[in-house]
């Protein structure tokens, strides 16, 4: 493959080599420009029929039989009468640039009459194409070219064809991942140093390796690590400039349209004029602000649902890196410097936060932080070398993910005692927005906290809870309640409600079974939800006990976690 590419690149003129590279990749433009041909097989066949004079029904049948629109094109064009046009061979052969320009017009056709325009443009191409050319054009336009040439193979070809070091090409590609443009750059003999981090063009993101124990991770990172919550959402590379805010996905696609709320929040939170930031967009419960699993971001994927989703499924952006600020490329600076810079330019709000992080040098502390992170709704930690630069496009050992290799499933509901509450915001203002719940320990006759729950309550439930709890209000924590968490309001332990969660996890934030499984860590219900059942038939001493919590934790079904 490389040999073929070398000879092709050597033959190509600089002004067409970019187009050749895009064709090889099966695209017309780099991913963030979102240029799509939008040509279905049916439309392609209609264009072929128009160009060849062969009835569309015949071509449909041919396509059905061979399953390859390219083959249908080849046969149509070999038998064609080419109505209204000179016979093939009697006119100027097609040039790469011409084909490219017409296809770009096809991709950009939109609105009323777009279908007809696309058919006309394509049929004019087919009318001039040889049967072999038609075969590949047809496959390309319906997205079936599939040459299987990897980006790195193109880089190898370019390196050999133009005598440029492969490593330098790779570096340039990581900063500006547009292979067509890169090919043209080297074919024109321009120096690679000209290629710099650019606002509006996403860099290839740095990726993480994976290890499964804190001690291995610390050893690999040279003894100490910046440990950050590993948020479970969508990775976002955010480019802020005078022109506005653009958000790019992990795969370099422009996803700005899905997150108008993030755009607005970034504008308000970031004080720099220009910046490239990285973070994770996480769906949160609109009533409690608690993190939700990333599946809840699906509502942002359908264009017509975005406006409603912004209201019903709000997000928080957790920023974890900054690559560029006001003309200064920070990718060669150490992580610690970048994190400081990040806190300098970001004013945190309820929509934009800086990813929670700590520096550790002992595995036990990393583990405690890990369990805290998971119980808050994340996937674990990303541990990073404090001195590492931002390695674009690399999956090296300077970022190491620490995830669980299994996920558990909570097998039963639990009945927990309301011991505290948190003031509600927004729709819940004036009421309680979330409640601190505890399990009972008969051996000490005390209540130990298990979770903070805000989900599953209807408006009527919240009102009822508020009214029921008023007479039980205390100015301080009840002496029979053991809690590390500070509630806004405390109650006499009396009201029992039924709760279900995704699983029971270890957590240093709660006191239930503290130290029973690991030192310094208790048990918590992750993603807890009120089932709607008030257990007024139960006294607080009949609530789920800490021993039952431990039993439930041990008996949970463990489900293998996908890599
Ligand atoms: N604090 C953080 N620092 C870096 N990445 C984070 C952080 N929090 C969440 N992430 C996310 O974690 C991802 C890496 O881990 P994960 O294994 O979940 O993703 P993946 O897509 O399966 O793997 P990868 O991105 O490494 O190919 C990052 O791409 C990013 O989206």
Q: What would you note in describing this structure?
A:
About 45% of the residues are buried. By secondary structure, this protein is of the alpha+beta class. It starts with a helix and ends with a strand. It has 3 domains: about 25-140, DNA ligase, ATP-dependent, N-terminal domain (DNA ligase i, domain 1), CATH 1.10.3260; about 205-405, D-amino Acid Aminotransferase, Chain A, domain 1, CATH 3.30.470.30; about 410-560, Nucleic acid-binding proteins (OB fold (Dihydrolipoamide Acetyltransferase, E2P)), CATH 2.40.50.140. It contains 18 helices and 23 strands. The longest helix is centred in the first third of the chain and has 15 residues, at about 115-130. Adenosine-5'-triphosphate binds near residues 228, 230, 280 and 382. One of its GO terms (biological process) is cell division.
Keywords:
single chain, 563 residues, alpha+beta, DNA ligase i, domain 1, D-amino Acid Aminotransferase, Chain A, domain 1, OB fold (Dihydrolipoamide Acetyltransferase, E2P), 3 domains, eight-stranded mixed sheet, six-stranded mixed sheet, 18 helices, elongated, binds adenosine-5'-triphosphate, DNA replication, DNA binding
Summarize the structure.
The chain is α+β, with helices and mostly antiparallel strands and 563 residues long. The chain contains 18 helices and 23 strands.
